[in-house]
């Protein structure tokens, strides 16, 4: 049997891409949200109209430019440039951003803690 270098190269590339995909889907240990479901969070992001203001990877038509883009959110050190990017702070921010930063343009959207946990779980998948 004759080896095909091109097929071997394609196989190696598929394996590398699969491993890279596994790495990117892992949520950092310190950013896991208890009882947070990223898929439910994606639905809530659309339901609450977050795409109107933010560009959000993985959310269809999320091309807003009023708020900051949320790409690579899990890698950010701060929320709104002033609060450590921790699960508790993020859930609080999603529930009531003006309580944490009174002059923020992000409104209190009436999001419950349970819903905020799902949204935070989705945002922490963005690496």
Automatic annotation (TrEMBL):
Pfam families: Cytochrom_C (PF00034)
Coiled-coil residues: none
Every Cytochrome c domain range: 36-127
Signal sequence region: 1-20
Keyword annotations of the record: Heme, Iron, Metal-binding, Signal
The protein's name in its UniProt record: Cytochrome c oxidase subunit 2
Originating gene: ctaC_2
């Amino acid at each position: 049997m004759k080896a095909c270098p091109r097929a071997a190269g394609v196989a190696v590339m598929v394996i590398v891409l699969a491993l890279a995909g596994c790495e990117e889907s892992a949520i950092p240990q310190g950013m896991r949200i208890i009882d947070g479901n990223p898929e439910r969070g994606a639905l809530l992001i659309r339901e609450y109209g977050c795409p109107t203001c933010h560009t959000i990877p993985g959310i269809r038509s999320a091309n807003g430019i009023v708020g900051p883009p949320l790409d690579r959110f899990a890698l950010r050190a701060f929320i709104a440039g002033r609060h450590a990017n921790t699960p508790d702070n993020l859930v609080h921010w999603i529930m009531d951003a003006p309580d944490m930063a009174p002059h923020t343009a992000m409104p209190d959207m009436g999001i419950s803690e349970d819903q905020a946990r799902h949204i935070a779980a989705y945002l922490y998948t963005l690496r």
